[in-house]
Design a protein that fits this description.
This protein has helices spanning 16-27, 55-66, 83-91, 117-127, 160-180, 187-199; strands at 2-8, 32-38, 69-73, 103-109, 135-136, 142-144. With 200 residues, it is of the alpha/beta class. Strands 1, 2, 3, 4, 5 and 6 form a 6-stranded parallel beta sheet that branches. The chain is globular and about 50 Å long.
Length: 200
């Protein structure tokens, strides 16, 4: 059974993005193992000259390293991803490369009707940076609109269409992870390139 890390892209205590990842963990428990990881507790990224990585960032990086893939759920604030998610990605690309060639699926939940398409595009852009170089599953946007009304008291999604779409995307992600396991020929060169960027 594959193991995935699910990054909660917000520090809001009542986030529907956390609800979405919790639903994924429970709904697919017979097929995959999902560990929710909070991104709070990291200092503001300031590019320390000694390149010392905070223990919290190292712990998250270790979880990502040991996983088969990463699922990120992000809200959308002002057409972009939240600062807490951007801050985490900055730490996770500074002297360490846990995302390098790691399969990633991006999801999002939004209070409004537009979903999180712009925030997801923002996260995709960051993950494609030379210092991160994640393998992002294409054509896989999953958005829960009007998310305050999307879940029942037990954390279940109401809309069967949403559930069926998610089931299809998770099945595709499983295939994407399998395919990615055969695409490791350039990993060492990519890591070296990223290290050179950090030291220049």
């Amino acid at each position: 059974m594959r193991k995935y890390v699910a990054l909660v892209g917000t520090n809001s205590k009542r986030s529907t993005n956390r609800q979405l990842l919790s639903f994924i963990k429970k709904h697919f428990s017979n097929n995959i193992q999902v560990e929710l990881v909070e991104l709070g507790g990291l200092p503001i990224f300031d590019k320390p000259r000694n390149m010392k990585i905070p223990p919290r960032a190292m712990d998250i990086a270790d979880k990502i390293d040991k996983s088969d893939g990463v699922i990120i759920s992000t809200p959308e604030y002002d057409h972009a991803a939240p600062a807490v998610l951007m801050n985490a990605l900055e730490w996770l690309s500074y002297g360490i490369q846990p995302f390098m060639d790691k399969p990633v699926m991006i999801t999002g939940a939004s209070f409004g009707g537009l979903g999180t398409s712009r925030a997801q595009a923002h996260v995709r852009q960051m993950l494609d940076a030379p210092e991160l170089r994640a393998r992002i599953m294409p054509s896989s946007e999953y958005m829960v609109a009007h998310s305050l009304q999307a879940f029942d008291d037990d954390g279940q999604l109401f809309d069967q269409n949403n559930i069926e779409k998610l089931e299809g995307l998770i099945a595709d992600f499983q295939e994407f992870v399998e395919l990615n396991s055969h695409l490791k020929h350039n990993l060492n060169v990519s890591r070296l390139d990223a290290s050179r960027i950090m030291t220049n």
